[in-house]
UniProtKB/TrEMBL annotation:
PANTHER family: CARBOXYSOME FORMATION PROTEIN, PHOSPHO-2-DEHYDRO-3-DEOXYHEPTONATE ALDOLASE. This is 3-deoxy-7-phosphoheptulonate synthase. Residues 1-67 form the DAHP synthase ferredoxin-like domain. The keyword Transferase applies.
Length: 338
């Protein structure tokens, strides 16, 4: 249930309403918009009668929220959420591009790529230190050594970092090393214990869509994180599994419009993992921005042919620079900037 307060409701009246509801056992999410305040009630509201609230002098309207996700719902939070990643705002007018190698390999590799993507306009450096692979015999990443190399390259280029957390036992390491944005990968989208664990952190979370997940299931996973107190969640569409074999996954651009209608959370697109083919990355990135995405995450490698991981979907720094020029041309057309 949500309670929409009237315009210019005194702060004292809002606090009285919040206190009254909390005394009745409800958790209250307060969303302050440009003109009105919306109070979201979390708990068993089945016994509440909307008419009881309509008699209140400062209540504008009362509505029941049918969606199983509450905190992630746009009904609870009508205004778009902007997530601050160490000074980089994701979800506002300015588009955000996250770029870097699938896997961190050597100091020269990650430092060189970081320098190149920063020069072209990337705002966040991505790189995998712990790699979930389908085969147990594939390269699994450099682990903590990889994190150190990633952070060193990021500091040298004044960039925040995003990297994947695969298990809760590594949370202490991520906090100690001050990772700016924690990525939860597609395979862990419904690892509910891990979601609750990052929900208790004061670190933004990038939540990738599971390879067979519906949009509602994806938002429910975001709800797991938000229910523990961490509302700084960024969604990432990375393609879903279908019968199609021409691409690694099927990029669901319609998810952007659906999420924007259903939720207030920012959403970015990963065209690298979605297509699995480097020649598709630029066009799909352009399509994502045109469809309303808040940013792009893509894989960039200085030598894709010899990459230790996912070289087929990695673009070169030169191609990345060309893509960024194209995105700058598209951004103003959809009311954004890069």
């Amino acid at each position: 249930m949500i309670i929409v307060m009237k315009e210019n409701t005194p702060a004292l009246e809002i606090e009285r309403m919040v206190k009254s509801l909390e005394d009745r056992g409800f958790q209250i999410d307060k969303s302050t918009g440009s003109r009105k305040v919306v109070l979201g009630l979390v708990g068993d509201t089945s016994a509440l009668d909307e008419r009881d609230f309509m008699g209140h002098e400062w209540v504008d309207r009362v509505m029941r929220v049918q969606e199983p996700y509450k905190r992630a719902s746009r009904a609870f939070h009508p205004e778009d959420t902007i997530v601050d990643v160490s000074g980089v705002k994701v979800g506002g007018k300015k588009l955000v591009v996250m770029a870097g190698p699938c896997s961190i390999e050597t100091p020269d590799q990650i430092h060189g790529i970081a320098k190149e993507v920063k020069k072209s306009g990337a705002a966040i450096l991505r790189g995998g230190a712990f790699k979930p692979r389908t085969s147990p015999y594939s390269f699994q990443g450099l682990g903590e050594k990889g994190l150190d190399l990633l952070l060193s390259a990021a500091r040298d280029n004044d960039l925040p970092v995003v990297t994947e957390l695969m298990s809760a036992d590594k949370i202490g390491t991520f906090l100690e090393k001050k990772i700016d944005l924690i990525q939860i990968g597609a395979r862990n989208m419904q690892n509910f214990d891990l979601l609750k664990a990052v929900g208790r952190l004061n670190v933004p979370v990038l939540l990738k869509r599971g390879m067979s997940a519906t949009i509602e299931e994806w938002l429910m996973s975001a709800e797991y994180i938000m229910s523990e107190g961490n509302h700084n969640v960024i969604l990432c569409e990375r393609g879903i599994r279908t019968f199609e074999k021409a691409t690694r996954n099927t990029l669901d651009l319609s998810a952007i419009a659906a999420v924007k209608r259903m939720s207030h959370l920012p959403i970015i697109v990963d065209p690298s993992h979605a297509t699995g083919k480097r020649w598709m990355v630029e066009s799909m990135a352009m399509a994502a921005i045109a469809a309303g995405a808040d940013g792009i995450m893509c894989e960039v490698h200085n030598d894709p042919e010899n990459a230790w991981c996912d070289g087929a979907e990695s673009i070169t720094p030169e191609t990345f620079d060309h893509m960024m020029k194209k995105l700058r041309e598209i951004a103003p057309i959809v009311g954004r900037e890069l």
